[in-house]
Amino acid sequence: MLRPSTLALSIIGLLACAVLGILAFSGLLTAAHQPRLDANRELVTRLGLTDLALFTEARYTRHPSQADLHSALQDHPGAFDHFPSGALLAPPAHLTRLHSDTHEPVAGKTVSPD
Amino acid sequence: MSPWLEKQFHLIDFTLASLARRKTRNLGLLVVYTLLVFVLASLTLYSNALRSEAKHVLAGSPEVILQRMVAGRHDLIPPGYLDKIGRIRGVQKKEGRLWGYYYDPVLNANYTFMARPASEVADGMIMVGEALARERGLAKNNTISFRSYSGKLFTFEVAAVLSPDSELLSADLVLLSEDDFRRFFEYPDGHYTDIALSVANPQEVRNVAAKLTAALPDSRPILREEVQRTYQSVFDWREGILLTVLAGAILAFAILAWEKASGLSAEEKREIGILKAIGWETGDVIRMKVWEGLLISLTAFLGGFLAAYVHVFHFGAAVFAPVLKGWSVLYPKFALVPAVDGLQVATLFFFTVFPYTAAILVPIWRAAITDPDAVMR
User: How far apart are CA B270 and CA B276, in angstroms?
Assistant: First the structure.
């Protein structure tokens, strides 16, 4: 007759082995996806793509990285967001950056205040 | 077996028997605990997989995209603009890109039209993304007509459907020749949508961007690292939204676990009193309760994590996908890379197993050092 402690520790041991196995072989498990990932990266390079095709309803949701600095207020200042997926996109980084960090000029952004 | 190990086995036997006496209560706690770990682990695994995918594929995007701004809005690149960039050192390759959006009233969806050289797509032909082909019922050699913004009807033949594996990037994509693109959108000759720049030395990208801004004050360079950062923050943001929604549930569990772990019931106090009266040492009582905490929290963590792994990578995170993936008319189908971040798992372990086990210790120690007679009364 199996002792309850042996049974409990065996179950926990088995679960722990499965979790450690996932962690240890994570690289191997992702390797199966590598050809797909590489083909996609090649497509991105060849076509010069910049964004994921997740939300296609507006410029600033289809190409968030290319949207102007005022999106989602793109129609007029203070304009409400038209699309629900706007709620799933983060606000532009300059809006959430700490004020103390803003003295560092970021290349690629406008020099004058937005 | 060493006496120490034998003692631990006996303690665990006793702990399990004690847990079995309050079966419903402890099973309920274990189920809720496992569910909480399952929810948090699913969220972490799903967001991490999306982040890894975006990071890997977008590493191939152009080093710098140069947009022209007019009155604060993105405008077309006029002829001669490309020549001005040619003089900036470090720029290896520059290419005017032609792309735009087309609203298709049939699907009520927007497509992204992108021009490709004639060597890739011949005039009168198009290549379309898998999601678009699926929704419009298109296959190779089919023809499709689009009414342009000027009202003219253009008919194209589908030369190829892009690989379904690339749907995450090409769901709504329509690739056509440069001549067709200009005719369809009546794009003025010599104008481009934006410019893609290749910079030989990655260390130079920021300098090149600064030089571009100085040389072309009406331009806005977008760096590849900014593109990648955008997607990292998009998925961070969504993870945050769901965590905020779940905050109430997490707090409710914290209160439940704290109450269960730190407040001893009269029955438990009497049990400790009896154990001490029959000769158990304070250390043994504490060890028994630590085993109780560890057995519950480890089973919940490991079970919850494994269930989350299966849920996310084998069932496509059916429970959370609508919130984490979002939605659109042309939504891509994609498989997730089973990427697991060890640090995230460790963080989850620390914040779920450790507090519960630690919360058990203080009240037990307090009860265990009290006089057995007083505890039993």
Answer: 10
Residue B48: name the closest of B239, B225, B224, B322 by CA: B239
Residues 22-81 of A with CB under 8 A from B: 22-23, 26, 29-30, 33, 36-37, 39-45, 47-59, 61-62, 64-66, 68, 70
Between CA B294 and CA B283 the distance in angstroms is 16
- Helix or strand holding residue B219 (H, E): strand B219-223
For B71, the token pair is 């009155």
d(CA B377, CA B375): 6
**DSSP strands (E only) in chain A:** none
Q: Is B96 on the interface with A (CB under 8 A)?
A: no
List, in order of start, the domains of chain B with CATH numbers. Answer: 3-58+229-376 (no CATH), 63-224 (2.40.40.20)
Q: What is the DSSP letter of B172?
A: T
- From CA B187, how far away is CA A64, in angstroms rounded? 24
Cβ-defined contact of B329 to A56 (cutoff 8 Å): yes
Residue A114's pLDDT is what? 45
| B218 touches B84 (CB < 8 A) | no
For chain B (377 residues), the mean pLDDT of every run of 10, in chain order, is 86 89 87 92 89 90 92 87 81 91 90 93 94 92 93 94 92 94 94 92 89 89 90 84 84 79 73 83 85 91 95 86 72 85 89 81 73 68
Helices (H), B263-320: 266-277, 282-314
Percentage of chain A beyond pLDDT 90 is 29
| Cβ within 8 Å, pair B298-A16 | yes
Per-position b or e across A39-78, b if 16+ CB within 10 A of its CB: ebbebbeebbbbbbbbbbbbbbbbbbbbbbbbbbebeeee
B175 in Cβ contact with B61 (< 8 Å): no
Token look-up 């429970």 returns B319
Interface confidence (ipTM) of the complex: 0.79
CA distance B31 to B8: 25
CA distance linking residue B160 with residue B175, whole number of Å: 10
The CA distance from B37 to B256, in Å, is 15
Give the separation between CA A50 and CA B212, rounded to whole angstroms.
19
Q: B309 contacts in A (CB within 8 Å)?
A: 22
- Residue-level pLDDT at A89: 67
Query: What's the average model confidence in pLDDT over A90-114?
Result: 57
Q: Which 8-state DSSP code applies to residue A88? A: G
